[in-house]
Design brief:
The protein is of the alpha/beta class. The chain is built from 9 helices and 10 strands. Helix 2 packs parallel to helix 3. It is globular.
Protein backbone atom coordinates (compact mmCIF):
# COMPACT_ATOMS: atom_id res chain seq x y z
CA UNK A 1 0.00 0.00 0.00
CA UNK A 2 1.20 3.49 -0.89
CA UNK A 3 0.44 6.38 1.45
CA UNK A 4 0.28 10.06 0.64
CA UNK A 5 -0.35 13.21 2.63
CA UNK A 6 -2.85 16.00 2.02
CA UNK A 7 -2.00 19.40 3.51
CA UNK A 8 -3.79 22.75 3.75
CA UNK A 9 -3.62 25.92 5.78
CA UNK A 10 -0.08 25.57 7.08
CA UNK A 11 2.22 28.46 7.89
CA UNK A 12 3.86 29.11 4.54
CA UNK A 13 7.33 28.21 5.79
CA UNK A 14 6.20 24.69 6.85
CA UNK A 15 5.42 23.14 3.46
CA UNK A 16 9.02 22.45 2.50
CA UNK A 17 9.73 20.69 5.80
CA UNK A 18 6.59 18.59 5.45
CA UNK A 19 7.47 17.46 1.92
CA UNK A 20 11.10 16.72 2.77
CA UNK A 21 10.11 14.73 5.87
CA UNK A 22 7.45 12.80 3.95
CA UNK A 23 9.92 11.93 1.21
CA UNK A 24 12.58 10.83 3.67
CA UNK A 25 10.00 8.67 5.50
CA UNK A 26 8.82 6.84 2.37
CA UNK A 27 5.51 8.55 1.62
CA UNK A 28 4.42 8.36 -2.01
CA UNK A 29 2.94 11.84 -2.57
CA UNK A 30 2.01 15.14 -0.99
CA UNK A 31 -1.26 16.78 -2.08
CA UNK A 32 -1.89 20.50 -1.68
CA UNK A 33 -5.52 21.47 -1.12
CA UNK A 34 -6.64 24.70 -2.73
CA UNK A 35 -8.68 27.83 -2.24
CA UNK A 36 -8.07 31.16 -3.90
CA UNK A 37 -9.72 33.42 -1.31
CA UNK A 38 -11.90 32.96 1.77
CA UNK A 39 -15.13 34.99 1.68
CA UNK A 40 -15.92 36.49 5.08
CA UNK A 41 -19.49 35.22 4.80
CA UNK A 42 -20.60 32.13 2.90
CA UNK A 43 -23.42 29.59 3.01
CA UNK A 44 -22.64 26.48 5.10
CA UNK A 45 -22.97 23.97 2.27
CA UNK A 46 -19.62 22.15 2.46
CA UNK A 47 -20.62 18.62 1.38
CA UNK A 48 -18.22 16.56 3.50
CA UNK A 49 -19.12 17.70 7.02
CA UNK A 50 -22.56 17.63 8.69
CA UNK A 51 -22.05 21.21 9.88
CA UNK A 52 -21.63 22.45 6.31
CA UNK A 53 -18.40 24.12 7.39
CA UNK A 54 -15.02 23.10 5.96
CA UNK A 55 -12.98 23.50 9.15
CA UNK A 56 -11.00 26.61 8.21
CA UNK A 57 -11.58 30.32 8.72
CA UNK A 58 -10.62 33.63 7.16
CA UNK A 59 -7.54 33.56 9.41
CA UNK A 60 -6.32 30.28 7.87
CA UNK A 61 -3.26 30.99 5.70
CA UNK A 62 -3.72 30.08 2.04
CA UNK A 63 -0.73 29.15 -0.11
CA UNK A 64 -0.67 29.46 -3.87
CA UNK A 65 -0.35 25.84 -4.95
CA UNK A 66 1.86 26.50 -7.98
CA UNK A 67 4.41 28.65 -6.17
CA UNK A 68 4.46 26.14 -3.32
CA UNK A 69 4.84 23.11 -5.59
CA UNK A 70 7.72 24.88 -7.32
CA UNK A 71 9.44 25.21 -3.95
CA UNK A 72 8.70 21.59 -3.06
CA UNK A 73 10.12 20.37 -6.35
CA UNK A 74 13.41 22.07 -5.41
CA UNK A 75 13.68 20.48 -1.94
CA UNK A 76 12.64 16.93 -2.96
CA UNK A 77 13.67 14.50 -5.67
CA UNK A 78 11.37 11.45 -5.50
CA UNK A 79 8.02 12.15 -3.86
CA UNK A 80 5.10 12.94 -6.16
CA UNK A 81 3.71 16.48 -5.99
CA UNK A 82 -0.02 16.91 -6.38
CA UNK A 83 -2.96 19.27 -6.12
CA UNK A 84 -5.69 17.78 -4.01
CA UNK A 85 -7.79 19.28 -5.35
CA UNK A 86 -7.31 22.39 -7.48
CA UNK A 87 -10.53 24.30 -8.19
CA UNK A 88 -10.20 24.15 -11.94
CA UNK A 89 -13.12 26.33 -13.19
CA UNK A 90 -12.07 29.15 -10.86
CA UNK A 91 -9.14 29.99 -13.18
CA UNK A 92 -8.53 30.81 -16.81
CA UNK A 93 -7.44 27.51 -18.44
CA UNK A 94 -4.28 28.80 -20.12
CA UNK A 95 -2.95 30.00 -16.76
CA UNK A 96 -3.50 26.53 -15.30
CA UNK A 97 -1.98 24.81 -18.33
CA UNK A 98 1.18 26.90 -18.17
CA UNK A 99 1.61 26.54 -14.39
CA UNK A 100 1.07 22.77 -14.42
CA UNK A 101 3.41 22.25 -17.38
CA UNK A 102 6.12 24.23 -15.60
CA UNK A 103 5.84 22.25 -12.37
CA UNK A 104 5.75 18.97 -14.28
CA UNK A 105 8.96 19.79 -16.13
CA UNK A 106 10.85 21.34 -13.20
CA UNK A 107 9.97 18.39 -10.93
CA UNK A 108 11.08 15.78 -13.45
CA UNK A 109 7.56 14.53 -14.13
CA UNK A 110 6.29 14.23 -10.56
CA UNK A 111 3.11 16.32 -10.81
CA UNK A 112 -0.39 14.87 -10.41
CA UNK A 113 -3.08 17.41 -11.25
CA UNK A 114 -5.97 16.73 -8.91
CA UNK A 115 -8.96 18.84 -9.93
CA UNK A 116 -12.44 19.59 -8.66
CA UNK A 117 -15.31 21.95 -9.38
CA UNK A 118 -15.51 23.44 -5.89
CA UNK A 119 -18.52 24.04 -3.67
CA UNK A 120 -18.35 27.68 -2.49
CA UNK A 121 -20.48 29.97 -4.65
CA UNK A 122 -19.17 33.07 -2.88
CA UNK A 123 -15.57 32.28 -3.85
CA UNK A 124 -16.58 32.07 -7.50
CA UNK A 125 -18.45 35.36 -7.25
CA UNK A 126 -15.44 37.07 -5.69
CA UNK A 127 -13.22 35.77 -8.51
CA UNK A 128 -15.66 36.89 -11.22
CA UNK A 129 -16.38 33.33 -12.38
CA UNK A 130 -19.78 31.75 -12.95
CA UNK A 131 -20.65 29.12 -10.36
CA UNK A 132 -23.58 27.48 -12.11
CA UNK A 133 -21.61 26.54 -15.24
CA UNK A 134 -18.57 25.26 -13.36
CA UNK A 135 -19.16 21.59 -14.19
CA UNK A 136 -19.52 22.14 -17.92
CA UNK A 137 -16.57 24.53 -17.92
CA UNK A 138 -14.46 22.01 -16.02
CA UNK A 139 -15.09 19.39 -18.70
CA UNK A 140 -14.11 21.87 -21.38
CA UNK A 141 -11.01 23.02 -19.50
CA UNK A 142 -9.71 19.45 -19.23
CA UNK A 143 -9.93 19.17 -23.01
CA UNK A 144 -8.15 22.51 -23.41
CA UNK A 145 -5.34 21.49 -21.05
CA UNK A 146 -4.66 18.33 -23.01
CA UNK A 147 -4.62 20.27 -26.28
CA UNK A 148 -2.20 22.89 -24.96
CA UNK A 149 0.10 20.29 -23.40
CA UNK A 150 0.83 18.78 -26.83
CA UNK A 151 3.14 21.73 -27.48
CA UNK A 152 1.61 22.01 -30.96
CA UNK A 153 -0.46 24.84 -32.44
CA UNK A 154 -4.05 24.37 -31.25
CA UNK A 155 -7.32 26.26 -31.51
CA UNK A 156 -10.49 25.70 -29.54
CA UNK A 157 -14.16 26.25 -30.26
CA UNK A 158 -16.32 25.47 -27.26
CA UNK A 159 -19.43 26.57 -25.43
CA UNK A 160 -17.49 28.53 -22.81
CA UNK A 161 -14.01 29.05 -24.28
CA UNK A 162 -13.03 30.05 -27.79
CA UNK A 163 -9.58 30.95 -29.11
CA UNK A 164 -7.61 30.99 -32.33
CA UNK A 165 -4.48 28.90 -32.80
CA UNK A 166 -1.92 29.26 -30.03
CA UNK A 167 1.13 27.23 -29.08
CA UNK A 168 2.32 26.54 -25.54
CA UNK A 169 6.03 25.81 -25.54
CA UNK A 170 7.67 23.89 -24.05
CA UNK A 171 5.31 20.96 -23.67
CA UNK A 172 5.44 19.38 -20.22
CA UNK A 173 8.24 16.84 -19.87
CA UNK A 174 8.66 13.93 -19.75
CA UNK A 175 4.89 13.73 -20.41
CA UNK A 176 1.71 15.61 -19.52
CA UNK A 177 0.72 15.16 -15.87
CA UNK A 178 -2.09 12.75 -15.03
CA UNK A 179 -5.42 14.39 -14.21
CA UNK A 180 -7.08 13.04 -11.06
CA UNK A 181 -10.70 14.06 -10.53
CA UNK A 182 -11.97 14.66 -7.01
CA UNK A 183 -15.42 14.50 -5.49
CA UNK A 184 -18.11 12.04 -4.40
CA UNK A 185 -21.18 13.48 -6.16
CA UNK A 186 -22.61 11.54 -9.11
CA UNK A 187 -21.41 14.18 -11.63
CA UNK A 188 -17.89 14.05 -10.13
CA UNK A 189 -17.77 10.26 -10.35
CA UNK A 190 -18.95 10.29 -13.95
CA UNK A 191 -16.39 12.99 -14.76
CA UNK A 192 -13.61 10.93 -13.21
CA UNK A 193 -14.59 7.96 -15.38
CA UNK A 194 -14.98 10.03 -18.53
CA UNK A 195 -12.00 12.36 -18.31
CA UNK A 196 -9.71 11.32 -15.50
CA UNK A 197 -6.59 9.23 -15.01
CA UNK A 198 -7.61 8.68 -11.40
CA UNK A 199 -10.02 9.57 -8.60
CA UNK A 200 -9.35 11.49 -5.37
CA UNK A 201 -11.93 10.69 -2.72
CA UNK A 202 -13.06 12.52 0.42
CA UNK A 203 -12.68 11.13 3.93
CA UNK A 204 -15.22 8.32 3.90
CA UNK A 205 -15.85 4.82 5.27
CA UNK A 206 -14.65 1.91 3.17
CA UNK A 207 -18.14 1.04 1.93
CA UNK A 208 -18.59 4.50 0.42
CA UNK A 209 -15.24 4.38 -1.36
CA UNK A 210 -16.07 0.93 -2.72
CA UNK A 211 -19.46 2.15 -3.95
CA UNK A 212 -17.81 5.14 -5.64
CA UNK A 213 -15.33 2.85 -7.37
CA UNK A 214 -18.15 0.65 -8.63
CA UNK A 215 -19.87 3.67 -10.19
CA UNK A 216 -16.64 4.82 -11.81
CA UNK A 217 -15.75 1.39 -13.15
CA UNK A 218 -19.23 0.83 -14.56
CA UNK A 219 -19.00 4.16 -16.38
CA UNK A 220 -15.47 3.39 -17.62
CA UNK A 221 -16.67 0.08 -19.05
CA UNK A 222 -19.59 1.80 -20.76
CA UNK A 223 -17.19 4.31 -22.33
CA UNK A 224 -14.61 1.70 -23.32
CA UNK A 225 -12.02 3.30 -21.02
CA UNK A 226 -11.69 0.40 -18.59
CA UNK A 227 -8.43 -0.81 -20.16
CA UNK A 228 -6.70 2.53 -19.50
CA UNK A 229 -4.57 3.02 -16.36
CA UNK A 230 -6.55 4.50 -13.48
CA UNK A 231 -5.64 5.00 -9.81
CA UNK A 232 -7.89 5.44 -6.79
CA UNK A 233 -6.68 7.75 -4.01
CA UNK A 234 -8.91 7.12 -1.00
CA UNK A 235 -9.07 8.66 2.45
CA UNK A 236 -9.31 6.49 5.56
CA UNK A 237 -11.11 7.55 8.76
CA UNK A 238 -8.27 6.36 11.03
CA UNK A 239 -4.87 5.68 9.45
CA UNK A 240 -3.45 4.57 12.82
CA UNK A 241 -5.86 1.60 12.87
CA UNK A 242 -3.91 -1.26 11.30
CA UNK A 243 -7.08 -3.33 10.85
CA UNK A 244 -8.78 -0.48 9.00
CA UNK A 245 -5.79 -0.02 6.70
CA UNK A 246 -5.78 -3.76 6.07
CA UNK A 247 -9.48 -3.66 5.15
CA UNK A 248 -8.83 -0.96 2.52
CA UNK A 249 -5.93 -2.99 1.15
CA UNK A 250 -8.05 -6.15 1.06
CA UNK A 251 -10.70 -4.25 -0.89
CA UNK A 252 -8.09 -3.53 -3.55
CA UNK A 253 -7.20 0.07 -2.73
CA UNK A 254 -3.47 0.64 -3.20
CA UNK A 255 -3.27 4.40 -2.51
CA UNK A 256 -4.35 5.82 0.84
CA UNK A 257 -4.38 9.55 1.57
CA UNK A 258 -3.94 10.92 5.10
CA UNK A 259 -4.54 14.47 6.33
CA UNK A 260 -2.27 16.28 8.78
CA UNK A 261 -5.11 16.47 11.27
CA UNK A 262 -5.07 12.67 11.52
CA UNK A 263 -1.39 12.55 12.49
CA UNK A 264 -1.44 14.24 15.88
CA UNK A 265 -3.48 16.73 17.93
CA UNK A 266 -2.96 20.25 16.57
CA UNK A 267 -0.58 18.83 13.96
CA UNK A 268 -1.26 21.65 11.51
CA UNK A 269 -0.25 24.24 14.13
CA UNK A 270 2.48 22.33 15.98
CA UNK A 271 5.39 21.82 13.60
CA UNK A 272 7.23 19.36 15.82
CA UNK A 273 4.12 17.20 16.28
CA UNK A 274 3.38 17.43 12.57
CA UNK A 275 6.78 16.20 11.42
CA UNK A 276 6.92 13.58 14.19
CA UNK A 277 3.52 12.25 13.12
CA UNK A 278 4.62 11.97 9.49
CA UNK A 279 7.62 9.86 10.53
CA UNK A 280 5.75 7.72 13.08
CA UNK A 281 2.85 6.79 10.79
CA UNK A 282 5.29 5.90 8.04
CA UNK A 283 7.22 3.66 10.44
CA UNK A 284 4.01 1.96 11.54
CA UNK A 285 2.27 1.54 8.21
CA UNK A 286 4.80 1.52 5.39
Amino acid sequence: MRMSLTVFGLPLDSYAAVAATAERSGWDAVWLADHLVTPVDYAPVYPYDPSGRPGYTVQTPLADVWVTLGQLSAVTSRIKLATGVYILPLRQPMVTARAAATVQTLSGGRLMLGVGSGWMREEYTAAGQDFDTRGARMDEIVAILRKLWTGEPVAHRGEHYDFEAVQMTPAPEPAPPPIVVGGMTPPALRRAARLGDGWFGPNAPLAQSVAAREVIEAERRKLGRDTLPFRYYVRVPDPWDAAELASFAAAGFEDVVVSLGQLAPNAARDRVAMLDGIEKLAAAAL
